[in-house]
């Protein structure tokens, strides 16, 4: 197992999964190999991208970040490659693109999955030939920059659906680094909590408060669908709202404390309603005409089967399952015990 001496400045966590991230980051940073960072939103992909740059021979060069999902296709092409005056209506002067600006350094392409299929062809050329033309120009520009890309979706699925080029994927995926979600590194939560408590106490010129044991218990039990970014926001909120020098549990949102469900989207709710309808109809058809038989033969088995299916959809994570079902975590825990589904949950 890696020692703490091999941690990376600015990154918090000592669990095995993060130690592997640190190991790979340190190993590949000195090279110019393209890196593909994958992981859910809020897991720290930009921090790893920055670490790869800072630990590389290019550290003295520029680090250029582009959020590919924040710009329309026409704007993104100009942003990446630059344009010439008159190339389009609003092009009133020549403009240097992000690839050109990253010469001698690193360019970080966040949300790479958002790039259009047509623009992916130009990206592939830059990766293979290290050259491009500005929009509206015929002059070829040579560029020397390291490319780090990041995505929060499964690019293999995007390839199957025809929205991402397979050749570009293989060119990006030279060195893959997977950032684990926070729910899979709960042992790191206390350290992260203390880090953010100190940070926001300093930012707001407050004394560093104590974190109550109950508060920490809720924080370590919560599923964190928004990962470290969500944790960070709730710590800042609790610290600002605190009236004493202790962060008590009541400063956390109700769904973090398990007393209110997380809101779910209309699509998820509809799919659950359809699932319930199908299960009930099937069980009623199997039941006898005796009314007393309906509860034991229909409702209990339907509830159990529904729990099994939603638990499996949520990979056994109880907080996420409770959110999808619209019940709190304590109620879900009791139902899991009643139906003997401990093996399906974690």
Please describe the structure with a list of short key phrases separated by commas or semicolons.
Arc Repressor Mutant, subunit A; disordered N terminus; two-stranded antiparallel ribbon; 14 helices; 47% helix; alpha/beta; Rossmann fold; Helicase, Ruva Protein, domain 3; 346 residues
Notes on the protein architecture:
With 346 residues, the protein is α/β, with parallel strands linked by helices. The protein has 3 domains: 4-180, Rossmann fold; 183-251, Helicase, Ruva Protein, domain 3; 266-344, Orthogonal Bundle (Arc Repressor Mutant, subunit A), CATH 1.10.10.60. It contains 14 helices and 9 strands. The strands form 3 sheets. It has a 5-stranded parallel beta sheet. Strands 4-5 form a two-stranded antiparallel sheet. Strands 8-9 form a two-stranded parallel ribbon. The model is unreliable at 1-5 and 264-268 (pLDDT under 50).
Summarize the structure.
With 346 residues, the chain is of the alpha/beta class. Helices cover 47% and strands 10% of the residues.
CATH class of the largest domain: Alpha Beta
As residue ranges, the low-confidence spans are: 1-5, 264-268
Helix and strand composition category: alpha/beta
What fraction, in percent, of the residue positions are helical? 40-55%
Q: Largest sheet, described in full?
A: 5 strands, parallel
How many E strands? Answer: 9
Percentage beta strand: 5-15%
First-last Cα distance: 25 Å
Give the neighbour order of strands across the main sheet. Answer: 2-3-6-1-7
CATH topology of the largest domain: Rossmann fold
Radius of gyration: 25 Å
Count of separate structural domains: 3
SSE arrangement, N to C = HEHEHHEHEEEHHEHEHHEHHHH
Quick check: average pLDDT?
84
Identify the CATH architecture of the largest domain.
3-Layer(aba) Sandwich
**Helix run count:** 14
**What is the 3D form?**
globular
CATH superfamily of the largest domain: P-loop containing nucleotide triphosphate hydrolases
């Amino acid at each position: 197992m890696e020692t703490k001496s091999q941690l990376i400045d600015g990154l918090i966590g000592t669990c095995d999964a993060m130690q592997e991230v640190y190991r790979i980051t340190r190993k590949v940073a000195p090279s110019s190999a393209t890196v593909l960072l994958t992981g859910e939103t809020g897991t720290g992909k930009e921090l790893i991208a920055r670490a790869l740059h800072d630990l590389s021979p290019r550290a003295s060069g520029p680090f250029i970040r582009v959020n590919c999902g924040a710009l329309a296709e026409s704007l993104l092409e100009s942003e990446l490659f630059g344009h010439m005056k008159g190339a389009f209506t609003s092009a009133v002067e020549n403009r240097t693109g992000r690839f050109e600006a990253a010469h001698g350094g690193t360019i970080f392409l966040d949300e790479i999955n958002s790039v259009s299929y047509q623009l992916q062809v130009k990206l592939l050329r830059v990766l293979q030939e290290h050259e491009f033309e500005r929009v509206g120009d015929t002059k070829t520009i040579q560029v020397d920059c390291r490319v780090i890309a990041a995505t929060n979706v499964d690019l293999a699925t995007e390839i199957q659906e025809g929205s991402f080029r397979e050749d570009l994927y293989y060119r990006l995926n030279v060195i893959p680094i997977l950032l684990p979600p926070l729910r899979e590194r709960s042992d790191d939560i206390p350290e992260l909590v203390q880090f953010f408590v100190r940070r926001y106490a300093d930012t707001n010129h407050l004394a560093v408060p104590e974190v109550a044991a109950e508060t920490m218990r809720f924080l370590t039990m919560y599923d964190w669908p928004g990962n470290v970014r969500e944790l960070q926001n709730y710590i800042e909120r609790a610290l600002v709202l605190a009236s004493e020098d202790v962060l008590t549990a009541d400063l956390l949102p109700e769904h973090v404390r398990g007393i209110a469900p997380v809101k779910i989207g209309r699509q998820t709710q509809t799919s659950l309603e359809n699932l319930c309808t199908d299960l009930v109809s099937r069980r009623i058809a199997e039941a006898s005409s005796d009314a007393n038989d309906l509860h034991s033969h229909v409702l209990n088995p339907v509830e159990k089967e529904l729990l099994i299916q939603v638990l499996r959809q949520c990979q056994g994570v109880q907080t996420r399952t409770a959110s999808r079902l619209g019940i709190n975590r304590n109620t879900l825990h009791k139902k899991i015990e009643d139906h003997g589904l401990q093996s399906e949950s974690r």
